[in-house]
Amino acid sequence: MTTIDLPLLPLGRGKDLSAERGVECPGDLPAASDPDLVARAAAAKAALGDRVFVLGHHYQRDEVVEFADVMGDSFKLAKDAAARPEAEFIVFCGVHFMAESADILTGPEQKVILPDLAAGCSMADMARLGQVQDAWDALTDAGIADVVVPITYMNSSADIKAFCGRHDGAVCTSSNAEVALEWAFAQKGPDTKVLFFPDQHLGRNTAVLKLGYSLDDCVVWNPLLPNGGNTVEQLRAAKVILWKGHCSVHGRFTPEVVDELRATIPDVQILVHPECAHEVVLKADLVGSTEFIINTIEAAPAGSSWAIGTELNLVKRLANAHPDKKIAFLDKTVCYCSTMNRIDLPHLVWALESLVAGTVVNQITVDPETETWAKLALQRMLDLPGKTSRD
Ligand code: SF4
Fold first, then answer.
1. Cβ(175) to ligand 1 under 6 A?
2. What is the CATH code of the structural domain delimited by 250-329?
3. How far is CA 195 from the centre of its chain?
4. Is 119 in the pocket of ligand 1 (CB under 6 A)?
5. Pocket test for ligand 1, best of 155, 290, 315 (most atoms within 8 A of CB)
6. Which residues, 6+ apart, have CB-to-CB distance to 268 below 8 Å?
7. Which letter does DSSP use for residue 6 in this model?
8. Cα–Cα distance measured from residue 359 to residue 350, given in angstroms and rounded to the nearest whole number
9. Nearest C-alpha to atom 6 of ligand 1 is from which residue?
10. Which among 11, 175, 201, 222 could bridge 229 via Cys, Cβ 3.0 to 4.6 Å?
11. What class is the 37-120+339-360 domain?
12. pLDDT digit string (tens) for 328-374?
C-alpha cells in the first residue's frame, strides 16, 4: 500500500543520488537571485484569486509566510483548508505529512500542492509502515497485541495514521496527547498498553509527566532490532511502548544549555515543546505545543525573559514581534528545520505560476482506502473530550 503518487524520498536516497535532496524539482525553478520573485509570487497569487488558498506552517521562512493566507500548526492548517471548499488549489507551505492530512480532510475536488517534494519530515520518516507492521506482528507473537492501542502523533505519514485507524487506535497532537493516552488506556481493560509513534519524546513526556507512569513503565521500540530490542517479558511488563523516533530539531536542545542560560540570563523562563528530550522538559518552566508557545509569549509581560526550545524561524518571528520582551533561542548554534526550509520563494513562485498556466504540479494525494482508515483515526481524535485541535 502506498499513499504517495509522486516520489517523496527520504533524504539522500532516490533518483538523484548525488544530491542531498534526494528528489529533484520536476520543472524549471526561477533563480533564487531573480529580483522579481516577490512580484511574481504576488502576481500569480492575485491571478488565481479565490481559486488558491496558501497555508503557512509556523516553521516556514519569512519570505514564504508573507504569501500565506493563514498560519498555523499542522492540524489547524488542515482544518483551515477543509473550511475553504471553494478553493480549488491548496498550496501547503509545510512538509509532506501535513499536505497528506490536508488532502484527507479536504474535498475530492480540491488539489493539495506541496511546492517542493523534498520537504519531508525526518521524524515521520522514522516510522515506515512495513516497520510498524513488523512491530505489530512481534507484539502478536508475544501475545499482547490484543491489549495494545496504537497512537500516532500527527507528524506521521497517512499510512501510519491508517494503521491506527485499522487497529482501534487514534491520532494525537502535542496539545491533546494527554487526553489521547487517557482514552487509549481506557480501551482494552486494565492490561491496556499503548504503542506510541513516531516521537518517543512526546510519548514519554506525556505518559510520565501527565499520566503519572514511571520511566520503568516505558520501553523503547527500536525498529532495527528484533523485538524492538526488548525481551518478550519486557514487552509484556511495559505499559507504554515508545517508537524510537525523534525530531531532529527539538532533539538538539540539551539540559546543559538550559543550565547555562539560567546562569547567564537573570529570571529567564525556559519554554519548550514536548518533542524535546525528557531531561530538557524536566528542567523547563513551561512545556507546550507551538500554539501554546505563541500564546505564552503574547501574554507575557513586557521586560520578561524567555529562552525558547522550538524551531528557529518561529523563535525569530516571536522575537521580532515582541521587542519589549527578551527572547533567546535554546541552542548555541543556529538550526532550522532543514526540510521545512526547502519550501522557498522560487518553489512557491514555480508552483503558483504553474497553476496560473493550468498545470497542477506536485499534487499530494492519499489513496481512498488509506484515506478512509486515516480519517477514522483522525475522527477518534476529534471525538476526544476537551482541546483537540492544536499541534
Ligand atoms: S521540526 Fe521536526 S517534526 Fe517538524 S517537520 Fe521538522 S523534523 Fe519534522
1. no
2. 3.40.50.10800
3. 18
4. no
5. 155
6. 261, 262, 305, 306, 307, 326, 328
7. S
8. 11
9. 337
10. 222
11. alpha beta
12. 999 988 778 989 999 999 999 999 999 999 999 999 999 999 999 99
